[in-house]
Amino acid sequence: MNADDIPVAHTPAGGYGAAFPPLILAGCDEPLVEGAPDLRGTWKTFSATRGGEAVAADDRLMSYTERIEQCGNRIVDCGGGTIADARADGTEENGVHDVSAFDYTTPIHVVASYESGVFILRPVGMPGIEVTRRLDEDGHMIWTRPDMGGIRVVLERIDA
């Protein structure tokens, strides 16, 4: 089954709750496109900094968990109650068109791409902002988000 055969998923009203939704790309066996980092699996925060300073143990970043699915150039990121489903092809048309994790109602539109082994999200209307996810030499996922005080989160894969 190819990624095109599976409908785009969206966040349900109010978010998906405490448990991840069922797998969205289940059964998809299309190989990942060249240049895509293999981010598939469930990830949990290992460490986090904001503005270069370690966050407190009770900071919500320290309890963050997300699940990523990939197939072809498609990537689905479930985290914070939202489902971000996109084609990482660099177009606005095929990017994320969903809602913000902050209120589950504010529309978001984000261009997604894979560039030199990095997954990059560029929110439409926010020039210069790039949210990135990449793998480090130890297999951890490094998530950076410059628009929220310079967040850098290191996550470990807890389930493939």
Question: Mind explaining what this structure looks like?
Answer:
Helix content is 0%, strand content 43%. With 160 residues, the protein is mostly beta strands. A hairpin with a 2-residue loop joins strand 3 (65-71) and strand 4.
Largest sheet: 11 strands, antiparallel
Shape: globular
Estimated radius of gyration: 15 Å
- Helical stretch tally: 0
Uncertain spans = none
Strand content: 35-45%
- Distance from N terminus to C terminus (CA atoms, Å) equals 20 Å
Q: Oligomerization state of this entry? A: single chain
Mean pLDDT: 96
Order of helices and strands: EEEEEEEEEEE
Helix fraction by DSSP (H/I, runs of at least 4): under 10%
Count every beta strand, where a strand is a DSSP E run of 2 or more residues.
11
From the helix content, strand content and strand pairing, which structural class follows? mainly beta
Q: What labels describe this entry?
A:
160 residues, mainly beta
Question: What's the short version?
Answer:
By secondary structure, the protein is mainly beta. The chain is built from no helices and eleven strands. The radius of gyration is 15 Å and the shape is globular.
